[in-house]
Amino acid sequence: VIGSVAIVGAGPGDPELLTLRAVRRLAAAEVVLHDALVAPQVLALAPQARRIDVGKRAAGRRTEQVVIERLLIRLARRGQRVVRLKGGDPFIFGRGGEEALALAAAGVPFEIVPGLSSALAGPALCGIPLTHRGVSAALVVVSGHDLGAAQQVLAPLLPGSATIVVLMGRERRVELAQLLLRCGWSAQTAAAVVQSASLPSQSEWRGSLSELAEPQLRSQLDPAAPSLLVIGEAVAMAATQATAVGEKIAA
Amino acid sequence: VIGSVAIVGAGPGDPELLTLRAVRRLAAAEVVLHDALVAPQVLALAPQARRIDVGKRAAGRRTEQVVIERLLIRLARRGQRVVRLKGGDPFIFGRGGEEALALAAAGVPFEIVPGLSSALAGPALCGIPLTHRGVSAALVVVSGHDLGAAQQVLAPLLPGSATIVVLMGRERRVELAQLLLRCGWSAQTAAAVVQSASLPSQSEWRGSLSELAEPQLRSQLDPAAPSLLVIGEAVAMAATQATAVGEKIAA
User: Fold this and answer.
1) A30, A82 in Cβ contact below 8 A?
2) Test mutation, A126, A141, A157, A194, chain B, max B CBs within 10 A
3) Band of the pLDDT at B244, cuts 50, 70, 90?
4) Which residues contact residue B181 at a Cβ distance below 8 angstroms, ignoring those fewer than 6 apart?
5) Angle between helices A96-106 and A65-77 (to 10 degrees)
6) d(CA B59, CA B63)
7) With 90 as the cut, is the pLDDT of residue B242 above it?
8) Helix, strand, coil shares of chain B as percentages rounded to 5?
9) What is the mean pLDDT of residues A119-148?
10) Catalytic residues of B
11) What is the pLDDT, as a whole number, of residue B39?
């Protein structure tokens, strides 16, 4: 009997932001292979499962992608119900596509369970709309981990024509903000940095594009927290009350 | 006693793709103001609530945005627990930002509950990754309802440099695909149309950009279904098995 693999998006971190389907797959899992960024509270939803941390960190321990794929296939062939749990959504900067192809090639039954990407949920939890009528009607998402691709997409944009989200953007903040300024974006363009979106430690910096480009902003940011940049006039339309009041409503 | 408003993303349609928080807010709601596209199975999660359909349709009945905002404020001031339920995510082409600003200005407590946008979940449910290592490392999302903004963002893109998703794209399919071809995108670029993402009626067309640009493709598409276009080489990396096997796993 062959098992199966569910490639599941864990969302930005808060377990309440998992989908019902993700919760069901976790509850039924026999093995969970998870990334380093998946929160312990999310893993707690699979109490019976064996957990394997295959988190790829920038430095330190690191499991090769091909090793992860072979492990998924081997576990499924042993008849296990496997959940491959990824922070955010598995199909946006999650390499879920590579794993899906490997499983398909091996004839292993699999499914994709989409999750909330922090690219969208992070700004929303800070009250920042990604589109806003008369202000922005387009969204561009890039990753700070692939600077070349980010530059290639951002440089030709008509200044102000889209809201830009840079996932894992903290380390590339200065060069990407300076690139936009060189490309004609107004120094006054609204910008934000969202860190640890949805977690109790969530924090937010808000300012202008020229402030975002300043190296010394670094001292105000947590160097260890997952960070995303949001750039564009839609950021100025944020209803700042949202997060605090959300907590009150939830309480 | 003042009530509150939760601006909740209902996801693409399948109730299993709601977040836990969305389900909790619906269960506790006294009034639900919802869009036309929200599925009946999702509304069924708020069995005790009064339901008000404020769906804005392209033709036919239509509630003005300002009327919706006034209604939210009035209901909250009467002490009601209100859920404002929107298809997908409320902050991406959902006008949630406008409603949040109106509530903030009126001093009404509110929160944002992000939902799965069909821009990301739709392709994922068809096995289509939006980014793929070595293939695409950027995502651009526009709406067919704002053709000018879409053209402004898409025209300057370096051909092939991003995966493009056009929400509500069916009616603008030919002109946007032709625009990309004129701008130098390869006729062989992979493309897809996803209709009724996540619903039992979900369907998918897959082909090339030049085929997407052909008017006669219309006969293969459901003219009434919500439709999104996906364009870019990442579409060619789709693991086509995903949906069917997902159903098997779920059964």
Assistant:
1) yes
2) A141
3) very low
4) B187, B209, B210, B213
5) 40
6) 11
7) no
8) 35, 25, 40
9) 96
10) 35, 56, 168
11) 85
Q: pLDDT, tens digit, for every residue of A196-225?
A: 999 999 999 999 999 999 999 999 999 999
pTM of this structure: 0.94
Strands B31-34 and A227-231: unpaired
Q: How far apart are CA B41 and CA A246, in angstroms?
A: 26
What's the rounded mean pLDDT across residues A62-89?
A: 93
Nearest-Cα residue of chain A relative to residue B246 = A111
Angle between helices A173-182 and A147-154 (to 10 degrees): 20
pLDDT of residue B64: 87
Collapsing DSSP states into helix, strand and coil, what is residue B85?
A: strand
Nearest to B125 among A97, A112, A239 (CB): A112
Nearest residue on chain B to A237, judged by CA atoms?
A: B97
Does the distance separating the beta carbons of B152 and A161 come in below 8 Å?
Answer: yes
Give percent above pLDDT 70 in chain B. Answer: 92
ipTM for the whole complex: 0.93
Residues ≥6 apart with Cβ < 8 Å to A47: none
Q: Name the nearest CA neighbour of B229 among B167, B171, B150.
A: B167
Interface membership of B232 toward A (CB under 8 Å): no
Burial, A228: exposed, middle or buried (Cβ in 10 Å; 0-12, 13-18, 19+)? Answer: buried
**Which residues of chain B does A237 touch, with a Cβ-Cβ cutoff of 8 Å?**
97, 101
pLDDT at B247: 45
Å from B214 to nearest chain A CA? 25
Q: Residue holding tokens 């949001």?
A: A230
CB contact B196 to A (< 8 Å): no
Residue A239 forms contact with B (CB below 8 Å):
yes
Mean pLDDT score, A10-39: 95
Residues 75-134 of A with CB under 8 A from B: 89-93, 95-98, 100-101, 103-104, 109-112, 114-117, 120-121, 123-125, 127-133
Give the per-residue pLDDT at B36: 84
